[in-house]
Amino acid sequence: MTSTKTLQQLIPGLTRKPRLMVVDDQTVMIRIMHEIFKEDFEVFMATSGKQALEMCLSQPPDIMLLDVMMPDMDGYEVCQILKSSSQYGEFPVIFVTAQNDTLDEVKAFELGAVDFINKPIKPVLVKARVRAHVTVKLQSDLLRSYAISDGLTGVPNRRYFDDQMQLQWRQGMREKRPLSVILIDIDFFKQYNDHYGHIAGDDALKSVAKALSDMAKRPLDSLCRYGGEEFVCLLPATDLKGAELIAQRMVDAVQTLAIEHSQSQVAKHLTVSAGIACVLPSHQFSAEDLLAAADKQLYSSKGQGRNRISC
Ligand code: GH3
Ligand code: MG
Ligand code: MG
Ligand code: MG
Fold first, then answer.
1. Is 190 in the pocket of ligand 1 (CB under 6 A)?
2. Is any atom of ligand 1 closer than 6 Å to the C-beta of 195?
3. Quick one: which of 67, 37, 1 has its CA closest to 133?
4. What is the pLDDT of residues 20-59, one digit of tens each?
5. CA 216, 15, 147, 199 torsion: positive or negative?
6. For a pocket test of ligand 1, which of 153, 187, 189 has the largest count of ligand atoms closer than 8 A to its C-beta?
7. Cα(89) to centroid of ligand 2, in Å?
8. Whether the Cβ atoms of residue 192 and residue 267 lie closer than 8 Å to each other
9. Can you give the pLDDT at residue 3?
10. Pocket test residue of 229, 251, 265 for ligand 1, highest count of atoms within 8 A of CB
């Protein structure tokens, strides 16, 4: 028999145990599953559909084993609710049930389940199937995270920013909340690269990205790489005053890094300039208008001598 790879070997970068939620009204079943999986998984247990849904909201699992027959809410209903809203997260659901009617099995797949296991269970088989499904889930999580992050700096990329902008624009319109953006551009970065080399340039970009990210810490804030040596910060529910404060903190944070830049015409260290714009999202403007306004202000910061903010 060939040796089985561990989940950590299958999924690069996996630093935690995958989370498995077992939903069954019979505690004996939960205990059996716990025994089977406790070594490789962090096992969560729910004895009713209602409890399972609540737990998914606070901490979605990576995979769920779901009983069909339960009092109050059956497994089919739980699955239907889970798959009807993104708020529960996306993870594979495997039904584990004493019902072995073909139509029941078909119904499970129609509701979005990935597998159907009959009771009494065969532990080795349950283990193998859970492993196969959770591997696909974790690999797709990893791909999704690659797709939205910038390879060099690790901060979210332009694609992520564009999606967030659309999302927050709509949210701002619904809730009548202001939306602010800050565009940040490194000063005299061409000269930095020319003098210190591209590798040092890349290192500087990483440090700047980290320093800027540290200044945008509310859950909805996002600091993304916009392109080249430009970053963009999206600040939902933030007015111009609030955005100005954060932008100034960003400019100061980069100064504090004190990255030597002997060729800069502003200071002897690396600096950034920022442009700020704020709008109450509506049908009269577009997200592009907001970005154009921030870009205009950035241009103004550059014109006024750099290492500053404009709004
Ligand atoms: P300004 O103060 O007006 O913004 O001048 P600048 O030199 O920063 O602007 P310019 O647009 O002339 O040059 C930007 C430079 O940023 C050019 C390029 O060498 C550098 N750059 C862009 N992306 C990267 C990157 O991923 N790595 C490195 N090392 N350099 C980059
Ligand atoms: Mg049951
Ligand atoms: Mg630029
Ligand atoms: Mg620049």
1. yes
2. no
3. 37
4. 999 999 999 999 999 999 999 999 999 999 999 999 999 9
5. positive
6. 189
7. 24
8. no
9. 58
10. 229
From the CB of 229, is ligand 1 less than 6 Å away?
yes
pLDDT digits (tens, 9 = 90+) for 212-243: 999 998 989 999 999 999 999 999 999 999 99
How does DSSP assign the chain, residue by residue? Answer: -PPPPPHHHHSTT--SPPEEEEE-S-HHHHHHHHHHHTTTSEEEEESSHHHHHHHHHHS--SEEEEES--SSS-HHHHHHHHHH-GGG----EEEEES---HHHHHHHHHTT-SEEEESSP-HHHHHHHHHHHHHHHHHHHHHHHHHTB-TTT-SB-HHHHHHHHHHHHHHHHHHT--EEEEEEEETTHHHHHHHH-HHHHHHHHHHHHHHHHTT--STT-EEEEEETTEEEEEEET--HHHHHHHHHHHHHHHHHH--B-TT-SS-SB--EEEEEEEE---TTS-HHHHHHHHHHHHHHHHHTTSSSEE-
Q: How confident is the model at residue 13 (pLDDT cuts 50, 70, 90)?
A: confident
| 231 in Cβ contact with 223 (< 8 Å) | yes
Protein residue whose Cα sits closest to atom 2 of ligand 1: 187
Please work out whether the CB of residue 150 comes within 6 Å of at least one atom of ligand 1.
no
ipTM over 0.90: yes
Of 206, 86, 218, nearest to 150 (Cα)?
206
Give phi and psi for 2, each to the nearest 5: -75, 150
pLDDT value at position 262? 97
Instruction: Determine which one of 54, 105, 229, 230 is catalytic.
Output: 229
Is 229 assigned a catalytic role? yes
- Taking the CA of residue 200 as reference, the ligand 1 atom at the shortest distance is 29
Tokens of 309: 């903010």
Task: Give the ligand whose atoms come closest to the C-alpha of residue 205.
Answer: 1
Taking the whole predicted model, whether its pTM rises above 0.90 is answered as no
Q: Which ligand is nearest to the CA of 301?
A: 1
